[in-house]
Structures are given as structure tokens and as C-alpha cells.
SDR family NAD(P)-dependent oxidoreductase (Sphingobacterium arenae), 257 residues
Amino acid sequence: MQIEQRKIALVTGANTGVGFQIAKALTENNYTVFVGARNLEKGEVAAVKLGANARAIQLDITDNDSIHKAMTKIQADFGYLSLLVNNAAISHTGKEGQTMEEVLGSQKPSIASIRELRTVWNTNVFGTLAVTQAFLPLLKEASAPRIVTVSSALGSLTINANPDNPYRSGFDAIYGASKTALNGIFLSLAIELESTNIKVHLVSPGFTATALNNFQGTDTVEYGSLEPIRVALAEDLPTGSFTGPADFSGPDNVLPW
């Protein structure tokens, strides 16, 4: 008789916000969860709050050495990874406490700092892909592996091309467009992997109050985490999905690319 494989998850940026809520839901559903955090001490504090099923792991997704060490640790402990949740992201590189309006005002394509654009994209796009590439060998060893990447409806070209979209003015060259690039890369990955058993999903939390928007989002982090949690726990969704909260995307939760 085949023994069911223990479920092992890694959540990046899991010490706070949506990442923490996803990690919490996974631990409550019998996953062993590696709580990825740039600052290991903060990760350890979060892991204690999450309980016995959580393990802190130092992971800076912009640091190849950090990524390799995290991969090596999980490989040594379990030899596979059931679920990778790409959650870590930044919205700007300026001083803390800037209002969302100040950040958006500085990220218009006509005046956006190319240096800031490179830094934000290095985390949101290149770092996220680097983590995914590093952990693909461990995902391939799992019985039902999945990749869930936290994106944003703000990255949808279809939605932003619609003049009736109330959030259209928030589509900027730095953060917003980084999510468009992220969507494109992970749709490409879904297509590449569709002949394998690795499923790839993208999910938007909606306009959630987190540090990314100076906590000016209209939804609580608990509410904004509901759709990412649903996707992270679901094992029967078709690969290549892009979904968001029902009150924005509709009853089927599907978002347009």
C-alpha cells in the first residue's frame, strides 16, 4: 500500500501580512511550512506564533547564496517540496511611511527612477523566478507539486486597458508593471510544465491593507488572504489559473490576463 507523502510547503515573505496568513492556513491543514524571511529572527518569531508545524528559514529572494542555502536545507530535511508559495514582494525603494499616493506619483513612466525600477523588478520578477528555478528539482520529487505565485489584478493588461476600471490610475511603471511581467513569466512557466504534474497558479489578494500600500488598502489582510489561501490549499485547480477575490473578479474568481 502506498503511503501518502507528507505535505511540505515553502512560503516566501511569510513572517508578516498575506504570507503569514497563508502559512497559518497551511499549518492548520497539516502542512509542514518553511517560513521564509529575509531576517531570520523575524521568521523565528512568526514560526513560534504558527506552532509546531512551522519552521523558520532565512531566505532573501534577491540573494542567490541565500536561495541555494534554503533549497539545500529543505532538500536535506525532506528531499522534496510539495508547494512553493511565491509571496515576497516590494512596492518601492523609498523611505518607509510614504503614502500610496506619493509612491504612485513617483512611479509614473515619464519620471520613474530606472534604478528603483530595477530594484523592485529584481525582487518581484527576477528574484521570484530565481527561487522557482532553484526549487523546481525538489518540486519534481513531490507527488502532487504546485507553485502558487501571489500577483495582483493591477498587473492585468486587459483590466487596465478598460477606461471604466476605477483602479486604472494606479497602474504604474514600477510596481504595477512588475506584476504584469510576473504574470507573463509564470504563464510561460505553466505552459512549459503543462505536460508534467507540476501545477502553476497566479492569485491576486485584491486591494489589501499591507506594507506594500502603506496599509491604505480597503480590505483587511485576513480578507485579502482568503483567495490566496483557497488557491494554496486547492489541489484540483487547472494549471495556469489567474484568480482573485470574488467581489472583484466575479463568482468564478477568474481574472483576465
